[in-house]
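Researcher: Please translate sequence to structure tokens.
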Amino acid sequence: MRAIIVAGGTGGHIYPALAIVNKIKEREPESSILYIGTVDRMEKDIVPKLGIKYVGIEMTGLDRKNLLKNVSVMKKYFMAVLKAKKIIKEFNPDVVIGAGGYITAPVLYAAHSLHVKTVIHEQNSIPGVANKFLGKIVDRVFLSLPGSLKYFDQKKAVYTGNPRSEEISLVKKAKKETLGFLPDKKLVVVVMGSLGSTTMTKKLKELIDGFKNKNYQVVIITGKKYFDDYKDVSVPKNVKLVPFLENFINVLKDTDLIVSRAGASTIAEITTIGLPAILVPSPYVTHNHQYMNALELEEVGACKIVTEEEFSKEKVIMEIDNLLNDTDGYRKMQNNSKKLGISDSATRIYNEIRKLIG
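Model: Translation complete:
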């Protein structure tokens, strides 16, 4: 297979894209892959290190606050379409795959205009501007969550789950002891995004004292940028503060409860594992999509939502205690979460692509 994959901006787009790449290479080792991203976002550093051929195209997203700036954005868009057409003609792919980010719009449009087969993957419950536009012209739309179906043509849309889930399902468990915790006590992981959060750091610092004398253990992942902000905080013996966890997914597999944001990657992780969760959606994202992601889980009993505004030491400790002490309720949430998880998502996407291109 000759495939171009396009994704950029955040790990929530890049890592699902790479999961699709890995599945294509697994099934068809002689495949030729080209990754198209931006010239200034994190994919330009991550992808080439993996030995994947990479091309960057200059592109920025729409400015919703200053509409005049969108004149220059549209100029970049048309230039990006022209550059993408040149790249696509030279590479001659069987398919062009978009996995999110504003770079997908010009590249998938260019591919469509050249009559190349095109597919996109939507990670969130509510699609972004690029995927709403692209959904009208591509051949297939792959969805992480069933609630996204209503936004797309039912003849094109396929509920596949998030391709990251397949890699998550294969990761080995890291036991609690690797963090210096006791194996027979429950573990709660608290994390507000891989980079941490300015607004949540103060709230988390206030939360720490509330875990004192609890019969469970807590690891709080602060984000590297915010770790020093906690240096004056008194930390109970059953709590550990870490800036980052390299083996985060491994640790989640021996975790009893997570308190987390509700990004697409997080949803894939917790539903694949079947991990009960208290989700604190970020209110600072486009279309409030984290809240809608979390709501889709809460409506089927797979999580409990606590908004950032509601987040307090008293509220969060109460929710954690209620969940961990309610054996039946905990098991129901565990099972409901697992029902939403799809452990072979990358395989489903590969099979759909292979059917499409023949």
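Researcher: Any highlights?
Model: The two ends are 10 Å apart (CA to CA).
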